[in-house]
Amino acid sequence: MQGAERRIHEDVDLYGWHAMNVLAEGSFPGFQYSIGFYRTVNHPEVLIIGQPREVMHGMLSVVADGIRDGRRYEAGVEADDILDGYRCLMQRVHESQYDQHVGWAIRFYRCRDFPVVQCIWPDLRGYYPWDDEASDELRRREPVISER
Fold this sequence. Notes:
- The protein is α+β, with helices and mostly antiparallel strands.
- It has one domain (3-141).
- 34% of the residues lie in helices and 22% in strands.
- Strands 1-2-3-6-5-4 form a six-stranded mixed sheet, sandwiched between helices.
- The termini are far apart.
């Protein structure tokens, strides 16, 4: 097992999950996703796109704490505890997106048989990227790769 893979396994063993940060590439913004939620607590992995690295890590930490407290952030759930003053919507990510977006999770699980949800965050006015009133900036910063 190489360094990055070893670190993932160590974090999952110690904390129950690992946050994988992926840098922006071309016009696609950076993102982060969890690895380990499914193994340790039978919960979908969570992917967040387009926030600053520290914000995404904080959001995933809130999700991890919520899961430990018995909350479930599954497809279709609207959660008001992830971002202060805003509701985030969880949407299922189709397996066709896994290779491009959760490759390290595939390596960790050694399969594609695990659920992933995208945590969709709204703009400051509360609009999601698919809302007519949403700004082009929001749509650029937060591509929706999940199913609606």
